[in-house]
Design goal:
This protein is an all-alpha fold. The chain has helices at residues 2-27, 37-47, 51-64, 69-81, 85-96, 103-119, 123-136, 140-153, 157-170, 176-192, 196-209, 214-226, 230-242, 248-262, 267-277, 281-295, 297-310, 314-327, 336-349, 391-397, and strands spanning 311-312, 353-355, 361-362, 378-380, 384-385. The strands form two sheets. A three-stranded antiparallel sheet has the order 3-2-4, with no helix packed on it. A two-stranded antiparallel ribbon has the order 1-5. A hairpin with a 5-residue loop joins strand 2 and strand 3. Helix 4 runs antiparallel to helix 5, helix 6 runs antiparallel to helix 7 (123-136) and helix 17 (297-310) packs antiparallel against helix 18. It binds zinc ion. One of its GO terms (biological process) is regulation of lipid biosynthetic process.
Length: 402
């Protein structure tokens, strides 16, 4: 496989060469550079992995031929893609310093220089370049998107809101999901400083922009709980649970807390109603515990037997084996302890959440995917339904609970 890597710089250089030739064809047929030995010396340096010498040659070439902006942009993009940010910055800085660029070329070069600065972690410099581009109307939508990336990284949610609003007005791209999350971030910030009125105003804004914003309702429910109104909180949690299992694991501890505050003996009933509508492993786990507390271990075992009859779920199997070994050791089959150990290991290694945009897997809920930066794309991993007759479940639950 090593030979493939040897071809990479050649492939990159050929792309660059094509871009260069395309550029030179657009200028004039047989222009001064197409047979320029200086150009081929630069190309030779590039192919021999001597990029700094190549850059020196190409920068000088630009001084000879004032219309080689495309060449520079292709070379800058090549270094940027390879993560050689210092070299990309040299190329782009040299380009924007030139006076004979068209407006479009200047906009493009400034934008790429801004991206170089971002990659180098120089957010201040990148920000001022992008703001300049927006003001001049050059590459403005791309610049606005980059500004949002910067403000998100800096957790400057107010500026995220302002910039998203500008972008929304300049493009057809719907921004309601992002805008609702920025409002939620601001609500969280206010709550950390015990400023409930401001927080509530941002939650209302979030729901006005995106009526499906689950996060805003979750924060609101927590506010009701903290404000001493568990009845209102429970209404909101029920509403959220009806929306499906995607965020259920994240809100389950708060929902349990809420149920317990209202009625310690009615938790199994409350969870049972939710479970009937949307069966999912985290809810199954809490429901089986509540049944055990309120109705005894035998009832919990019966419940798990039924559940595993229709769900191919490791978490349910782990819970059933735990219960069998601890409360009904006389019914435990030979090898149950080893089986439990293996299953616990598999469950611990499994992700609880997955991004539906990029597949990023996580153990905890992130409202913004750490990998692809989408908002609201990370959701709980769903349990699989077994197809009847469920042979696996039958063999696991054989002789138990019956
Ligand atoms: Zn993602």
């Amino acid at each position: 496989m090593q030979w493939l890597f040897l071809l990479l710089p050649i492939a990159a250089a050929s792309g660059w060469l094509l871009a260069w030739r395309g550029g030179s064809r657009r200028r004039t047929e047989g222009s001064c550079c197409s047979g320029d030995p200086v150009f081929f010396r630069g190309l030779n340096y590039l192919l021999n992995e001597q990029p700094d010498k190549a850059i020196d040659v190409f920068l000088k070439l630009a001084e000879v031929d004032g219309e080689t902006a495309e060449t520079h942009l292709a070379l800058g993009a090549l270094f940027q893609r390879r993560g050689e940010v210092d070299r990309a910055i040299r190329i782009h800085q040299n380009l924007v310093a030139r006076e004979n660029l068209s407006n479009a070329q200047r906009g493009y070069a400034l934008y790429e220089l801004g991206r170089d600065y971002m990659l180098a972690g120089l957010f201040d410099r990148a920000e001022s370049l992008f703001l300049e581009l927006v003001e001049q109307g050059l590459q403005d939508r791309r610049a606005l998107r980059s500004l949002i990336e910067i403000y998100q990284a800096e957790k400057d949610w107010r500026r995220c809101l302002e910039t998203a609003d500008q972008l929304r007005r300049r493009s057809d791209r719907p921004m309601q999901t992002e805008i609702a999350h920025y409002h939620c971030e601001l609500a969280d910030e206010y709550l950390r400083h015990a400023r409930r009125d401001e927080a509530r105003a941002h939650l209302l804004d979030a729901q006005a922009v995106d009526p499906n914003c689950i996060r805003a309702t979750m924060i609101q429910a927590q506010m009701e709980m903290d404000g001493g109104d568990p009845n209102s909180a429970l209404m909101l949690y029920r509403h959220l649970a009806r929306r499906g299992p995607d965020y259920l694991p994240a809100m389950l501890p708060a929902l349990l807390h809420c149920c317990e505050r209202l009625n310690r003996q009615g938790v199994a009933k409350e969870l049972g109603d939710l479970f009937a509508a949307h069966p999912s492993p985290p809810l199954m786990l809490e429901l089986s515990r509540a049944i055990e507390r309120e109705h005894g271990p035998k009832a919990a075992l019966d419940f798990l037997n039924d559940y595993l009859g229709t769900h191919a779920d490791l978490v349910g199997t782990e819970r059933l084996l735990e219960l069998r070994l601890s409360r009904f050791p006389e019914q435990a089959a030979e090898g149950d302890a080893q089986l439990l150990e293996v299953i616990s290991h598999l469950v611990a290694a499994r992700p609880s959440y997955r991004c539906d945009q990029c597949g990023f897997e996580a153990r905890a809920l992130h409202w913004q995917c750490p990998s692809c930066k989408h908002w609201g794309s990370i959701k709980a991993v769903a349990a699989q339904l077994l197809t009847p007759p469920g042979g696996l479940a039958q063999s696991l639950t054989a002789g138990v609970g019956g």
